[in-house]
Amino acid sequence: MKRVLVADDEEVLRMLISDTLEDLGLHIEEAEDGEEALKKMSTNDYDLLILDYMMPKLTGPEVLDQLSPQIKREVPILMLTAKAQKSEEMEVYEAGATFFMAKPFSPSDLATIVEDIMNG
């Protein structure tokens, strides 16, 4: 079973993402901030990372800065953000994210993107 780490400080959004992705047959683990996400990534292997841009302790881009180049090459990273300006999108890609999705988003759009990532 493919494993996904969802890191977002909004519990309701984590639950929505988790429920949506579990319906796709994925195993979901959650982190409520960037620090917790890094800890989980240091001890577990994931097939996809979903990071919120704005989180306490460490932001999504700060998490990406601390990931090894190998993880960034091997694991797709989807960054979610309410900051949908072109400059933030470019920053996300420069930090190492593979995909970018603006909030708010529909669960069906998220499911479509994740299915494409996992089957791509």
Automatic annotation (TrEMBL):
Gene3D superfamilies: 3.40.50.2300. Residues 3-118 form the Response regulatory domain. Keywords: DNA-binding, Phosphoprotein, Transcription, Transcription regulation, Two-component regulatory system. GO terms for molecular function: DNA binding. SMART domains: REC. PROSITE patterns: RESPONSE_REGULATORY. Pfam families: Response_reg. This is Two-component response regulator. It comes from Halalkalibacter wakoensis JCM 9140. It comes from the Bacteria. CDD domains: REC (cd00156). One of its GO terms (biological process) is phosphorelay signal transduction system. The modification 4-aspartylphosphate is found at residue 52.
